[in-house]
Amino acid sequence: MQKCIDDAKQRGKKGVAVLTNDQTSWTPSKALFLQHQFQLVATAPFDFELMVYPFSEDVELPYFPENWHERLTGYHNLTILRSFQCPYV
Fold this sequence. Notes:
Blueprint: H1 2-10, E1 15-20, H2 30-34, E2 39-44, E3 48-54, H3 68-72
Antiparallel strand pairs: 1-3, 2-3
């Protein structure tokens, strides 16, 4: 974790962001990131969480959109297949 943070700082980034979901097996648990002082900044449908380790307090934090239903109105005749094994492919 520290290597990732150090690398981002060395490259002049504003922080590190990660997507977590305790309900899936393919994303890391947020507990790991909370142990390293990441903060939860946003949640999204289907238990997704956006965790951030900002390098300063004045940096603009990333976010999820909140208009999920509006964003879907442009899609017609769209079928999404979802399974518990690999639900978001």
